[in-house]
Design a protein that fits this description.
single chain, alpha/beta, two-stranded antiparallel ribbon, disordered N terminus
Length: 363
């Protein structure tokens, strides 16, 4: 838990939520063209839910475009680009402060939605109905398909996420670079370790009680870290595939970008340090030391990417530098945990299964 960015309903002067109410919050930074393409489906198919764009101090014409073309969309403006993680923390905090000032009720659910997601009629109903009927569930996601190829799952979340014992995330429908065609093989509601940040429904109360997203991550792995903390508090995370959304993906940093590689490695190591029980931490970190350098060599020799090779080394170096900043977070998380090791962390190596055994799907 990032204590520097922990907000509570009481600290914000929160009021009782209206049961079943939903606020869809789209974080934007210089995404005018993307919103012009994808916002119409959100506005048209979200019923009574309030659609909010939280603007991370865009320098393009996002605000002017919204005022002109989407006058019913509420806008929350931030003073600078806080990234994905803290952008949501600060957007929700400001949104709730504004609601209090205007004597509006707060929503029961937030939906964190990327600006490059398209939805159809009824997409919100299945998730809201499931959450209403299952109070033990803190968060959920829809089935996430590719907007480019709607027959296939989308990389960033597919049908719900898991993690192997060494910290490598994968999904129902996507393991490493293998993305499956959707043939209905994951159409059951399933409890998972993490739900995609591209389309994540979460109870407002659970969001703040878990400490929100860790703003220090800036972007990448923040939703896995957040959902892991929810699991450790005994709260459940599920995929509700009766709800479907279509994600373009790769709009911010594409695969192979050194900055993306850096954030993924640095944040993944930090997430492991924060959340792993003590009996597993040392062994996992030792194995990862070896595996990360193997990955760096592969990027250099096979992918011929000097930038990614350097990014792995920089990520490990920077993790070591800032690790002490998370000591108190780790202590608090471990002390307050009611679940020691969530079921969504599989007790096998997905690397071994994928590259040695050739098992490239979960089905």
């Amino acid at each position: 838990m990032n204590t520097a960015n922990t907000y509570t309903s009481s600290s914000l002067g929160g009021e009782p939520a209206a049961h079943g109410s939903v606020s869809i919050v789209i974080l934007n930074w210089n995404g005018s063209a993307m919103m012009r393409k994808y916002l119409p489906s959100i506005v048209a198919n979200s019923g009574d839910a309030e659609v909010v764009v939280a603007d991370n101090a865009s320098s393009d014409d996002s605000l002017e475009m919204l005022a002109r073309e989407f006058p019913t969309v509420r806008v929350v403006t931030l003073d600078r680009n806080w990234g994905f993680a803290d952008g949501y923390n600060k957007s929700f905090a400001k949104y709730e402060e504004e609601n209090k000032a205007e004597n509006r009720l707060l929503p029961e659910y937030y939906v964190l939605l990327n600006s490059d997601v398209r939805v159809g009629e009824g997409w919100l109903n299945a998730m809201t109905a499931y959450m209403d009927a299952h109070p033990e569930v803190a968060a959920c996601q829809p089935k996430l398909l590719s907007d480019v190829n709607p027959e296939c799952f989308e990389y960033a979340g597919a049908c719900g996420g898991y993690m192997d014992k060494y910290g490598y995330p994968f999904c129902r429908g996507r393991v490493f670079g293998t993305v499956e065609k959707d043939c209905g093989q994951y159409d059951d509601v399933a409890e998972v370790l993490w739900a995609t940040g591209a389309c994540l429904m979460v109870r407002r109360e659970d969001y703040w009680q878990a400490g929100g997203l860790d703003g220090r991550f800036f972007a990448h792995c923040e939703e896995i870290d957040f959902c892991w903390r929810l699991n450790m508090k005994g709260r459940k995370v599920v995929c509700v595939p009766q709800s479907v959304a279509y994600h373009l993906g790769g709009g911010t940093l594409p695969q192979g970008n050194p900055r993306k590689t850096y954030l993924n490695f640095r944040n993944n190591l930090t997430m492991l340090y924060k959340n792993l029980p003590q009996r597993r931490l040392r062994r996992v970190m030792l194995v990862r030391l070896f595996l990360d350098y193997v990955a760096a060599l592969q990027m250099l020799l096979l992918n011929r990417s000097v930038g990614e090779f350097k990014a792995v080394f920089k990520a490990r170096r920077d993790f070591k530098k800032w690790k002490h900043e998370f000591k108190s977070d780790r202590e608090l998380i471990q002390q307050s945990a009611t679940v020691d090791y969530p079921d969504g962390i599989k007790d096998y190596s997905v690397l071994f299964r994928y590259y040695v055994r050739g098992k490239k799907t979960m089905a």
